Amino acid sequence: GSVPFLETLRDRAATEGDLWLAEKLTRHANDERRHGQIFAHALKQLNKQVIDFKNTPKPVEKSGEPKRNPFFDAYFEGYTSAELKPEAIDWIAFLASTYILELDASKDFVRMANVLPEDEPINANLKKGILSVASDETGHAAYLREALERRLTAGEVEAVIDSWRTRKVNAIVAMVGSFIQKSGKSPSLVQDGVPTEMSEAPEAALAA
């Protein structure tokens, strides 16, 4: 998950002496942990649960290798799996690629929240939770851009952001192409019912 990844990056930043970035990554990891609680609680209210992919057989290619995510394959084209590990990833690549994802996510979450009606308690709480997540994502994008600005000139920052923006467009095209090839059959990320452990999730998660 993203939390262990961010925590490893935090430790790496601290070891390298960048305490400012280490503090930002700590906050980012904590936010992502809270986001998981928000969405788990929302799904519980809707009588849904997230599918546990650890207990789901992974689809394999004919070669026997696990299928890869077409979006991330295209987004990180040219990078090996080893180069994308938190212990090794290039800081500029991490900062710029994550900046694009966080910035776009913040806008997507606001759009999502704005279509929810507020005349029912469940929807009202869900909307509040999603807007809280959107606010966090905006903050994440801000520190990631600042981190880039601490390392690069203004022109270099714009160039690297433009490069990763292009990568995301290409990644979306790749994802859509993969979806079409599968005849529009996209697996659901949720299923009916709520497991016992989720029923004990903190009721205050959405109010965070």
TrEMBL record:
Query: Which SUPFAM superfamilies does the entry link to?
Result: Ferritin-like
Annotated protein name in UniProt = Rubrerythrin family protein
Superkingdom of the source species: Bacteria
Report residue spans for region: Disordered.
184-208
Source organism: uncultured Leptolyngbya sp
